[in-house]
Amino acid sequence: MHSSTSSSKALVWGRPFGLVLGRKGARNGIIALLAGLVLFFIALEMTSPLVLAHLSRTEQRVDDELRVAAGLRPTTADGRPTVLIAGNSLLIEGVVMPDLHDDLARQYEVKRLAIEQTHYLDWYFGLSRLLQEGFRPGLIVLALATDQLASSNTLGESFAHRQLSLRDFPRAVRECRLDRTTASTYLFAHWSRWLANKGFIRQCVDILVFPKFRELAGRIADHGPHVDDPAVLIAMARERLPQLRDLSRQFGVPIVLLVPPTLRQDHSGEIQELGNQVGVPIWVLSTAAEFPRELFRDGFHLNRRGATMYTTRLSQQIRSLSAKPSGCAADNPMTCMLVSPDAGTQTGH
Q1: How many other C-beta atoms lie within 10 A of the C-beta of residue 292?
Q2: For labeling, which of 5, 144, 234, 260 is most exposed (least CB within 10 Å)?
Q3: Degrees (nearest 5) of the Cα angle 18, 23, 25?
């Protein structure tokens, strides 16, 4: 009997003691797991920019161009107005920057900020962020096809990290029609370099593993119009051109929309007329299909010959900006160059 009683007491008293040990072990395991995850994500945050800088020349170029753009002021030390040309791959392949820079060097300081696969919302919020942070060129020339002006696409987490400010975040959620999950991802990506870079790192790895990946991606890429309904194009232009006008007026920096050459009907004439009405200069330097197929590399991007011809036209357009009118007191001379003193409306179309 005595032996049985002792055994029973040991079981009774041992049970809660075992539970306490089990709880402590579980808690310690959870703490260790969380600490490991924190260290893992810190390592990702610290190493992802280094990995991307090593793998991607494109990202290095974008970072360099962003740094230069952030330091622009309306005029240079020697008094030349500054011009920033922003856009995507249509700008990269459609404008020969060394030629443009050399041709305009005596009159203007021209810089480029190009980010591939970007559309209107990337640039509206991207320019807004730069302007909020003190970026002040004399003139912004935004190069976008008309369907890109009407598109609701963005560059995803990279856009949220590099081009979207917290001040504009609520509006971006509405404009981009983000669900709660995607909005949360964008919010985290605003601070996280890893979330912003992971897609580019994966692409770089694919290029290393598959030597012909870039060529294959170029062949299967969607170069068709993202918005091809004329009614939608005009409606979106009617909504978005005033946004660019208001952004320009808010920060005192003129913004011009540049429509690149295209082989298809892009309704740029109608959109240019809308620009005239709302006060946004729109430069259409070539009508639809004016540049023949042999001037395009893939039916969408210009080849070297086409880019050289288009660069000449762009240089002439910038040169055609009138001299600063007498009596113009604006701090930014480009504002005066794009404003007719008689009509009070922006010109340069």
Answers
A1: 9
A2: 5
A3: 95
The strands making up 82-87's β-sheet, listed across from edge to edge, are 109-114, 82-87, 139-143, 255-259, 282-284
CA distance 208 to 231: 43
For residue 55, give both structure tokens. Answer: 């793998």
Residue with tokens 């190069």: 143
Residue ranges covered by each domain of the chain? 56-153+226-320
Say how far residue 149 (Cα) sits from the centre of its chain. 13
pLDDT at 343: 34
For residue 57, the model assigns a pLDDT of 75
In one-letter notation, the amino acid at residue 34 is: L
CATH of 56-153+226-320, one of 3.40.50.170, 3.40.640.10, 3.40.50.1110, 2.60.300.12: 3.40.50.1110
Q: Cα(242)–Cα(270) distance, rounded to whole angstroms?
A: 15
- List pLDDT tens digits, range 106-162: 999 999 999 999 999 999 999 999 999 999 999 999 999 999 999 999 999 989 998
Count CB atoms within 10 A of the CB of residue 58: 16
Q: How many Å from the N-terminal Cα to the C-terminal Cα in the chain?
A: 107
> What is the DSSP track for 179-244?
-HHHHHHHHHHHH-HHHHHHHHHHHHHHHHHSTTHHHHHHHHS--S-S---HHHHHHHHHHHHHHH
